[in-house]
Amino acid sequence: METVGILGGTGPAGRGVAIRLASAGYDVVLGSRDAQRAGDVATTLAVRGAGSVSGGSNEDAAQCDLVVVATPWDSAVATVAALRAPLFGKTVVSMVNALAREGRELVPMYPARGSMAAQIAFALPDSTIVGAFHHLPAAQMEDLDSGLDADVVIFSDSDPARKHVAELVDQMPGLRAIIAGSMSLASPIEAFTAVCISINIRHKAHSYVKLAGLGH
Questions:
Q1: What is the pLDDT along the chain (216 residues), one digit of tens a residue?
Q2: Domain ranges of the chain
Q3: Domain 3-203 falls in which CATH fold?
């Protein structure tokens, strides 16, 4: 089974993805600018299943077969650009949302190329970019007993890559993959994360996206 690296994986979003990947049998490397911190965080995760979570530098995570970008949005491009060589030819999954807080709401930011996925794709011309994991509540992702039953909306210009990521997502407990389409959908999909978080702030809830009527 392929290994998965998570750049900036020590935050809540990265930890949640890591735990559910490990529960699906994947060996995951949490990447960080501080490898020691990543190792410390990895030891705190309550992993179930046949997989594992270890810590390392972002460079260590970039050596994995498939790589997820979970850094803050304002450092994502610089992080991946510095790793262009080890990410050459690989599928890179962006879960990055450009958001800013205004009062009790989050509002979407629109990068120069319209989305963070497009910004990352420009920085990594020799990698294949897939968008996924945008609308998930981090606390519920990290808690395998939360009862999470969420859909993960996936987009990419590469049909084989988005199908591959969908197969990976479908193995993760509590998640169902929904392929939306091409990178042209990146901006609205990323921006909708602001709606999800703002609703949760207003209602003191942990809601998530679930699409009905798809028949699977």
A1: 899 999 999 999 999 999 999 999 999 999 999 999 999 999 999 899 899 999 999 999 999 999 999 999 999 999 999 999 999 999 999 999 999 999 989 999 999 999 999 999 999 999 999 999 999 999 999 999 999 999 999 999 999 999 999 999 999 999 999 999 999 999 999 999 999 999 999 999 999 999 999 975
A2: 3-203
A3: Rossmann fold (3.40.50)
